Amino acid sequence: MSSNEQTLSVKNLLGIKDLTASDIDLIFKTAAEFKEVLQRPIKKVPTLRDTTIVNLFYENSTRTKISFELAEKRLGADVVNFAASSSSLSKGETLIDTVRNILCMKVDMVVMRHSASGAPHFLSKHIDAAIINAGDGTNEHPTQALLDSFSMHEKHGSLKGKKVAIIGDIAHSRVALSNIFCLKKLGAEVLVAGPPTLIPKHIASLGVDVTYNVNEALAWCDIANVLRIQLERQDMPLFSSLREYSLQFGITKAMLDGLDKEITLMHPGPINRGVELSSDAADSGQSIILDQVQNGVAVRMAVLYLLASGKK
User: Fold this and answer.
1) For 238-286, what is each residue's pLDDT tens digit?
2) Which residues have C-beta within 8 Å of that of residue 193, sequence separation ≥ 6?
3) Which CATH number fits domain 142-289: 1.10.1240.10, 3.40.50.2300, 3.90.110.10, 3.40.50.1370?
4) Where are the beta strands (DSSP E) in 195-304?
5) pLDDT above 90 for 296
6) Would you state the pLDDT for residue 22?
7) Can you tell me the distance from the alpha carbon of 101 to that of 127, in angstroms, rounded to the nearest whole number?
8) Looking at CB atoms within 10 Å, which of 110, 232, 269, 303 has the fewest?
């Protein structure tokens, strides 16, 4: 890889908050090279041979886990999958016990997803392996934001001055926070939209605009990144019903066709079809949702490769 002359300014990827614009640019350049590799008949680049990576998932996530596992195997790493539900955690093992076991196994990298905000940060203070945050509570999901911004960059070029609307359940979404940090570092303008009950009161302090009107958001933006309603993270009902939400904030192909411009439509998945997006909108020519899935492997390969290079 030609990008190996440069390294990231961090030794772990705990959040976008910790990255510089130069770090993001390096990840994008490296991901573009890996994406080229993934088009070849032989898709492996054994740059992480003899590197052991543990996927430590305390929370279910089929898509993110498969994407990381594919990225790791494409790089030739030795992969160990650790699922909390089938592990000794169900017998009362604590995170610090897990840490000690990882240290004994001489693991080089850990990809961690946890329902508690700050869990990967805790892990990074206790082990020498490189930690990649695959989502912690309602805090951050850095690789999702990187693949989202990479997909936007691929479609639109520089994001400087581009108008990006993040629409949906902002309050419970770690994707929203990481996206805001990433887009602001790349010079984009950001607007969040959704019901007042799903938008945090402090959000404007992050340098974003707020609207409670989805049509206003669509008319303003170049790119709409629509988020899933996170019912599993809501302690109490925050809107009357999914049908009511869909009527007020759901996006349809007719709404996109009614705009005086063409906007790009995104969604980190999985989509609640008929709730935040209608099927004809999700499957329309304006959607780059499948590109996001494909780009996820290349971006995660780039992150793994660059962090491993920084440890050598």
Assistant:
1) 566 788 889 999 999 999 999 999 999 999 988 989 999 999 999 999 9
2) 165, 166, 167, 168, 210, 211, 212, 213, 214, 216, 217, 249
3) 3.40.50.1370
4) 209-211, 223-226, 264-266
5) yes
6) 97
7) 10
8) 232
Say which residue, 99 or 76, is predicted with more confidence. Answer: 76
Indicate the CATH number of 2-140+293-311 among 3.30.2130.10, 3.40.1190.20, 3.30.565.10, 3.40.50.1370: 3.40.50.1370
pTM of the model: 0.92
In our burial notation (b when 16+ CB lie closer than 10 A, e otherwise), range 65-93 reads bebbbbbbbbbebebeebebeeeebeeee
Please state, in angstroms and rounded to a whole number, the distance separating the CA atoms of residues 163 and 179: 13
SS3 20: coil
Which residue's entry shows tokens 């020498």?
128
Q: Where are the domains of the chain?
A: 2-140+293-311, 142-289
Report how far apart, in Å, the C-alpha atoms of 232 and of each of 115, 137, 138 are.
11, 12, 12
Distance of CA 297 to the CA centre of its chain: 12
160-219 tens-digit pLDDT:
999 999 999 998 889 999 999 999 999 999 999 999 989 998 899 999 999 999 999 999
How many other C-beta atoms are found inside a 10 Å radius of the C-beta of residue 160?
9
